[in-house]
Known about the structure:
The structure holds two protein chains of two kinds. Chain A is mainly beta.
Amino acid sequence: AQSVAQPEDQVNVAEGNPLTVKCTYSVSGNPYLFWYVQYPNRGLQFLLKYITGDNLVKGSYGFEAEFNKSQTSFHLKKPSALVSDSALYFCAVRDYSSASKIIFGSGTRLSIRP
Amino acid sequence: AAGVIQSPRHLIKEKRETATLKCYPIPRHDTVYWYQQGPGQDPQFLISFYEKMQSDKGSIPDRFSAQQFSDYHSELNMSSLELGDSALYFCASSQRTGGINTEAFFGQGTRLTVV
């Protein structure tokens, strides 16, 4: 069975500082990994994905994520946080062998203070 | 660019009533997913369809059913509504390329309130 863990319910960062939102995964086969962002009462917006290739993937709004197979992690990062980055972030995984469903982590609320 | 369209955006129903949620996927997307997100919860996978056939099933109650039509739009039918069904319901779509689905794109959701 596939699963995703986001160990931090909340991450607080000062504007201009780097941010990291953590994610670890568990799948039986090769993972497809995603990050989504959710603003209040809105849908989930796709940020970036890892399918294969370079371990560092770049996405929307200056976000990037690093795939680490040995640590089964896919942490989301941004070099310089903006107040507008404050939102709920979900890590998600799709098992290559289970082509249909995407499983989400519990979410991490990112709060950027001015 | 066209996005996933869900209707209605808001719905208020009484207990034991029925509700139908509609989803119009991004053009040329062949896979549709339904998710339920309770307050402060992560999205829970309900069911998915590929080329109008059910492809995967998650924690969808027996009171709920869904289908994908010939034009690829999908409907989630919910009967005997309970207070606990109050949630945000998301539809998402993706395109299977080379036998593989990658990322899914989500609609704005339907907020269902059962009173």
